[in-house]
Amino acid sequence: MRPDGGDPEPDDYGLPRIDVVVPDDARELERDVAAYRREERRRRRRDRFRRAGRPLTRFGVAIPIIAGALLVALLSGVLMTTFGPRPAPPQTGARLAPRPSASPGEIGGLLPAGSVDEVTGQRAAIQIRDLRPGVIGIVPPAYECEGVVAELAGRTQENELKFYLVADPRPSGGKKGTPLKELKACAGTAHNGVPRLLEDRQALLAAAYAPPPAAPGPAATPGPPAAGLTAVFVQLDGVVKEVVQAPKPGPELAGKVKALQTG
Fold first, then answer.
1. Domain residue spans in the chain?
2. Is the pLDDT assigned to residue 194 strictly greater than 90?
3. Residues contacting residue 253 through CB under 8 Å, at least 6 positions apart
4. Which of 101, 122, 120 has its CA nearest to residue 110?
């Protein structure tokens, strides 16, 4: 410390001399104390942020990227579940009607015995009498897909029923049965439901419910026009309630679908 009006006292330890000024009034240090406290608050906030973000930054940027990808996947799944088409209900375990009023393959009777292939990613055999409750659409050869396919797909989905499309494999009027590619294209026109595709190689469903195939005409004469879709309405107990040839979209068709819920 420098004495008043004099030279610095000699340093007995060889340290550099420092001038220290002690204020007479401690209030003169208030600005320095306030600045120190502000800096300490900023330092504590930075420490809290570092501790909070340490789990995310421990492995660099990998964790935030993975977390963002999981969040996007979760949101995509929620949106697809909410707004995407609902799949048809699973196969029912309800019992078949023990004493139907008609023979199998007829209105009022059970569906025919036997199996068909359900075409998904792979073919899987399914019993015909398990195609219930819902509507089976039998597509004739050279069929030009109509709006009734989309109508049936939407109505069955609304009522939590199944909707199947199956091609009639029998040649008609010199025309081969509808190929699977065209059947898939027809199913793609349904935007409010998901038709399930069947392959009936033995024509069990077509022989029971669709019109008989037309005989081929002379070579120079074009064959008869293709018949419309055949809609088979099947109740929960496996009984065929109604068969409609060439159905048309409208309230009447919607009522037939809805009636399967109570059949």
1. 115-216+225-261
2. no
3. 148, 151, 152, 155, 244, 247
4. 101
